[in-house]
């Protein structure tokens, strides 16, 4: 398994972003100034890259005491797919595509488990937002049992961008939420769909729920009000497979 690639130095990180590399996180020393730093700052905001202000000691450790200039970044070990290309290619080869949108799922173990289940159930692609989502890092890949290298993953500026794109391709949006009376088993999943799973704490955002074609929930017979997001995702994906195999 490939670990995150570490790069350091302001110019190196700027060039990595401009070349299209996907950065999981940038670590910065407090008080940085200068033209290169301001150039990096603009790119970080434009590309919604996660950053942290950390002590110099951490930067030294990450860079193995090389001249980091107060900036170190981790590049994702996975190449991300282009959303347009993924949707178009999938529609050419599959009459009932199955996509998965993760709306701010932030725990890497949940993310990895979801990727693993997605691969096992034939999901054509996973779509995440650039900001607020769990990174695709070594721990994610380990939890996914390597499935992160097998399932196309796309990053978009906002989940709503992907929602509009999928709807324009006549793909129905199925949002998992407790804010509904519709039980999953009563919805037709044997059609082109994208399943939307929400964050561990807030669920699917209200803005995305309003755009969804179906809002579904799993029956809960105990006292606990919700399932772990990766468990719920697995149940929904396998109900999709069950319906499509009838």
pLDDT < 50 stretches: none
Give the domain tally.
2
Shape annotation: elongated
Proportion in helices: 25-40%
Strand content of the residues, in percent?
15-25%
Radius of gyration: 19 Å
Assembly form of the protein: single chain
**Could you name the CATH homologous superfamily of the largest domain?**
SPOUT methyltransferase, trefoil knot domain
Q: In order across it, which strands form the biggest sheet?
A: 7-6-5-9-8-10
Largest sheet: 6 strands, parallel
Question: At the first level of CATH, what is the class of the largest domain?
Answer: Alpha Beta
Query: Count of DSSP E strands?
Result: 10
Concise overview:
With 246 residues, this protein is an alpha/beta fold.
What does this structure look like?
This protein has 246 residues and is an alpha/beta fold. It folds into 2 domains: 71 residues, 2-Layer Sandwich (60s Ribosomal Protein L30, Chain: A), CATH 3.30.1330.30; 162 residues, SPOUT methyltransferase, trefoil knot domain (Alpha/beta knot). The strands form 2 sheets. A 6-stranded parallel sheet has the order 7-6-5-9-8-10, sandwiched between helices. Strand 2, helix 2 and strand 3 form a beta-alpha-beta unit. Helix 1 packs parallel to helix 2 and helix 5 runs parallel beside helix 9. The chain is elongated. The two termini are 38 Å apart. The mean pLDDT is 92.
């Amino acid at each position: 398994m490939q670990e995150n690639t570490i790069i350091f130095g302001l110019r190196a990180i700027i060039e990595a972003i401009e070349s299209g590399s996907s950065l999981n996180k940038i670590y910065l020393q407090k008080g940085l100034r200068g033209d290169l730093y301001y150039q990096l700052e603009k790119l970080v905001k434009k590309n919604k890259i996660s950053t942290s202000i950390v002590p110099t000691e951490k930067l030294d450790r990450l860079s193995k005491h090389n001249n980091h200039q107060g900036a170190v970044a981790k590049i994702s070990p996975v190449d991300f797919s282009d959303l347009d290309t993924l949707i178009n290619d999938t529609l050419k080869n599959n009459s009932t595509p199955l996509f998965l949108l993760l709306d701010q799922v932030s725990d890497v173990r949940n993310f990895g488990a979801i990727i693993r289940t997605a691969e096992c159930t034939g999901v054509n692609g996973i779509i995440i937002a650039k900001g607020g989502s769990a990174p695709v890092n070594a721990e994610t890949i380990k939890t996914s049992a390597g499935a992160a290298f097998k399932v196309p993953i796309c990053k978009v500026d906002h989940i709503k961008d992907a929602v509009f794109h999928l709807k324009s391709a006549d793909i129905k949006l199925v949002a998992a939420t407790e804010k509904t009376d519709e039980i999953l088993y009563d919805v037709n999943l044997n059609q082109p769909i994208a399943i939307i799973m929400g964050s561990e704490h807030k669920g699917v955002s209200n803005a995305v729920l309003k755009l969804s074609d179906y809002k579904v929930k799993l029956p809960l017979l105990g006292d606990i009000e919700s399932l772990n997001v990766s468990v719920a995702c697995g149940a929904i994906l396998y109900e999709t497979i069950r319906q499509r195999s009838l």
